[in-house]
Structures are given as C-alpha cells and as structure tokens.
Design brief:
The chain is an all-alpha fold. It is built from two helices and no strands. The termini are far apart.
C-alpha cells in the first residue's frame, strides 16, 4: 500500500470516528461538516481506485 492510499484510508477512519462522535453529541452542524468531508474523501478514493471498506458502519 502506498503512502497516498494509507493516508487516505487513515483520514477516512478518523472522519468516520469524528462523525460518530458528533452524532452521539447531537451536534447537527458538526454532523453535516463531517459527513461532507467523508463524502469528499470517499469520492477521492473512488476516483483513484482505492477500495474503502465500511470500517465503522457510518
């Protein structure tokens, strides 16, 4: 796995975690921000052929 792929997958996992935390805290604004970031990261992964498994079910 190259550095780009590893970094992208790490960012996705961190964002999934942040999204889950925002949901648990009931922070609707932060949920929207984190969901947007996660959507962007997943799109970037797809554009570069990086397979993203559902790590946290978010």
């Amino acid at each position: 796995m190259d550095a780009f792929t590893a970094g992208l997958l790490q960012r996705i996992r961190a964002t999934e975690s942040d999204l889950s935390r925002a949901r648990d805290e009931g922070d609707d604004f932060l949920v929207e921000v984190e969901q947007g970031e996660l959507d962007d990261l997943r799109r970037l992964a797809a554009e570069h052929g990086v397979e993203v498994s559902a790590t946290s079910g978010v």
